[in-house]
Design goal:
- This protein is mainly alpha-helical and 241 residues long.
- The protein has one domain (16-240).
- Helix content is 70%, strand content 3%.
- The chain has ten helices and two strands; from the N terminus they run H-H-E-E-H-H-H-H-H-H-H-H.
- It has helices at 2-9, 19-22, 34-52, 67-92, 107-128, 132-138, 147-177, 180-191, 198-218, 222-240, and strands spanning 24-27, 30-33.
- The protein has a two-stranded antiparallel sheet with strand order 1-2.
- Strand 1 (24-27) and strand 2 form a beta hairpin.
- Helix 5 (107-128) packs parallel to helix 10 (222-240) and helix 7 packs across helix 8.
- The protein is globular, with a radius of gyration of 18 Å.
Amino acid sequence: MIRRAWAWLIRAPAYPPDAADERTVDIVGLRLPWRATVAVTVTVFVFLFDYSRTFLPDDLGDELLSPTGLWATALQRAVLFGLVPLAVIVLGFSDRPARYGVRLGDGRAGVILVLAGCIVMTPVVLWFATLPEARAYYAPSAVGTEPARIVLTNLIDLTATEFLVRGFLMFSLIRVIGPFGVLVATLPFVFSHLGKPELELFSTLGGGLVYGWLAWRTSSIVWGALGHTYILSLVTLAVAR
């Protein structure tokens, strides 16, 4: 039974490249895979625009962690992390978004794995929410707003983030460098957490690999987005209480 369960757990689909995935471009002697190179470049630049708050109102100032600031950030990411890579896939790659995780994939595995992960992580998150550094960081995010607004903000933000990192970037990479692309795609995700509580920052590599593995296993970003939304919403609401 244990062997069967393990075989089911690691049974991911193959992601063979098509001709367009394998097409290369020569840049001063560097033979680079075209789609993967574009995905890396776009991801780097949208993360830089997001970090610089380029498209956010200047009057937000120190209020970026307030409900209003987080809502504005979520809308910015819906465009930068969601619509921009989607346009690249459809218009630039002439490809289907489903090949980049925009589908339910293995829904049965997704439901089982997300529920199991949320059950395991709930006591960990509730403990983390008691730490002074976590309370100091997350308290401004829950002041004067309803729980439904917190969940909706996180759902918009994290669905776009999962699509950019675990969809657009990761699936572009694994079709040319194999499962190693799961790890490579996690790196910008880790650096996007700079400034968060230290314990959360250092755990992000492991957490990011789990989300990447989940997308790889299910061929979908949906389940990681739901799990990610649950965890971030739970810690914010727990701090608020």
